[in-house]
Design brief:
The complex is a heterodimer of chains A (256) and B (288). Chain A is 84% helix and 0% strand. Chain B is of the alpha/beta class and 288 residues long. Classes of the chains: A mainly alpha (256), B alpha/beta (288). The interface between A and B is medium-sized, with 19 and 23 residues.
Chain lengths: 256, 288
């Protein structure tokens, strides 16, 4: 309970200040805060409640996009990392491309993907996967490369094949690194989903934000952002729980 | 077993063998992977260098089937490299190493089980799964591999620790598991690289006694590398003393009473003390 005290206190204090700034006319005027530009936290809470069906429906759409895109990038990222780890030639050939993939501005590529793949879930999956791919691949690759070479020698004298060495020594070594990458990925996946929806969609939280902003429904915009953040935090926490269960040695063994 | 303190034990015989000539035992049949068929290890004119750095030079050693050969030498003299060469993990720059009559690196890998200085237990596996790694790698199911490991846990005083994680075990326990893992590799030759170097003095003495019993129960051709003269003299049938880098053999001692119990009585006996002094003198003579 104690470890939650500090973050909760900070959030409550900030919300309190915000509420005061937006509610007190003296303060609001001094800071040039207009209610349609900056809604008070209580307005946002109001919107969270009254728009709950709207938020839930669109949140579900966005969550499906995030999960799909994330899953895609896990499969692609791990496959890519293993291939690059096993073959130095592939590594030399593809590593620059891997970094280049990260420099592609998602905002630019998103509308093109919509043109190519239509207004459905397709382009969103690709955009999210593209954003998640880099942290997952780079971390997994680093993890595979960080294996203790003495361990590799040892299992070789115990008749391990290349594949068994990967499975029994290198993969478990890399697992905590993979989770570090996946946690970053799932947090940025939410941003990817919004970009994807902005480029063209008829539902989802990103779409809702766009629509609400255009209609000056600022409270609803903020409510949607709140739901998005909650989604990201939830997914991050979920991954942390899974990590502690399946890669528990990551926190007890020093990573070298 | 001669174990009473002060009891007369055979005099140590320092044998200074001519290079290239060593005792027989070189015609053991090549039976890979069968620990019951003792295999000889022959190291003939072996030299090894890492780039410019010559670590081993013109080394001649023969280990007879079932024999425990101790190798002592100053630190950094290439003892660990020698074990990697014998195990087949490395090929020597020059000379030949034959294990059970085979000198290909695959053949040596198939015949040698290697116990490194660090226990190198996999933290994500339980003690018994660590010990059973080799059977698993050879295709045994998890259950079958555990069943193969279980009797050894009983026999070597580890019963009840099968499900423990390496992080829950003491240094001595971890080394025992590592030794079982080496035994379960089912190879005719054991290569032990400073197996107890990381342990405190008391645990170390206990482990030497434990290993003495283990080797009595599971006789294998063994090369034991250590920088501890006493450990080598106590555990081995014969001790080779190596010089500073590049390593050559400067002396060879037959030990007074290999693996006699209790250890304390043995290592304080006059014959043991004499042997230790001879070995230390040889070590000092090998310094450059």
């Amino acid at each position: 309970m104690r470890r939650w005290l500090a973050p909760v206190a900070i959030v409550v204090a900030l919300l309190g200040l915000w509420e005061l700034a937006a509610r007190l006319d003296v303060l609001a005027n001094a800071l040039h805060i207009e209610p349609f530009l900056v809604p008070a936290p209580s307005d946002i809470a109001q919107s969270l409640w009254s728009d709950r069906t709207l938020l839930a429906d669109n949140g579900w759409v966005t969550l499906k996009e995030i999960l799909g895109g994330f899953a895609l990038s896990v499969v692609a990222g791990v496959t890519f990392a293993v291939a690059l780890h096993l073959s130095p030639t592939l590594r030399r050939a593809f590593y620059p491309l891997l970094i280049a993939s990260q420099t592609v501005p998602i905002v630019v590529i998103a509308p093109i993907l919509v043109v190519w793949l239509g207004f459905g879930i397709g382009p969103k999956l690709v955009i999210i996967a593209l954003i998640c791919f880099f942290p997952i691949t780079v971390n997994t690759l680093d993890g595979l490369g960080s294996v203790d070479l003495d361990l590799v020698k040892m299992v070789r004298t115990l008749d391990a094949s290349r594949w068994q060495t990967l499975r029994r020594v290198e993969a478990p070594t890399a697992l905590p690194y993979f989770f570090s990458g996946a946690k970053i990925a799932v947090a940025v996946a939410v941003i990817g989903a919004v970009f994807g929806e902005w480029a063209g969609s008829s539902s989802g939280l990103g779409h809702l934000i766009q629509e609400a902003t255009a209609q000056l429904e600022t409270a609803r915009t903020f409510a949607a952002v709140t739901v998005l953040s909650a989604l990201a935090i939830l997914l991050f926490a979920l991954l942390s729980v899974v990590e502690r269960r399946v890669a528990w040695w990551g926190s007890q063994e020093p990573r070298t | 077993m001669r174990s009473t303190p002060g009891a007369p034990v055979a005099e140590p015989q320092p044998v200074q063998r001519a290079a290239g000539r060593a005792a027989g035992g070189s015609n053991a049949p090549p039976a890979a992977g069968d620990p019951t068929t003792p295999a000889a290890v022959e190291i003939r004119g072996v030299a090894h260098a890492f780039g410019e750095l010559r670590v081993i030079d013109g080394l001649e050693l023969v280990v007879e089937p079932g024999e425990v050969l101790g190798i002592v030498g100053p630190s950094g003299c290439g003892k660990s490299t020698l074990l990697e060469l014998v195990s087949g993990l490395r090929q020597p720059s020059d000379g030949a190493i034959a294990v059970g009559g085979t000198s290909s690196s695959e053949g040596r890998l198939a015949r040698c089980a290697f116990m490194p200085q660090r226990d190198l237990l996999l933290p994500w596996l339980t003690a018994i799964d660590n010990a059973a790694l080799a059977p698993r790698n050879r295709g045994a199911s998890r259950g079958a591999a555990r069943r193969a490991a279980h009797p050894l846990f009983e026999r070597f005083g580890l019963a009840g620790f099968e499900r423990s994680r390496p992080s829950e075990l003491s240094g001595g326990m971890r080394q025992r598991i590592a030794f079982l893992r080496t035994l379960l590799a089912g190879k005719p030759v054991l290569l032990l690289d400073e197996p107890f170097a990381s342990l405190d003095a008391i645990t170390r003495a206990e482990m030497q006694e434990w290993l003495a019993q283990a080797l009595a129960a599971e006789s294998r051709t063994t090369i034991l590398v250590t920088h501890d003269v006493e450990e080598a003299l106590y555990l081995s049938d014969r001790v080779a003393v190596l010089s500073d880098r590049p390593a050559r053999r400067v002396a060879e001692l037959r030990t007074p009473a290999p693996r006699a119990l209790p250890r304390v009585a043995m290592v304080t006996s006059p014959s043991f003390t004499t042997a230790r002094e001879q070995a230390l003198a040889a070590l000092m003579g090998g310094r450059r």
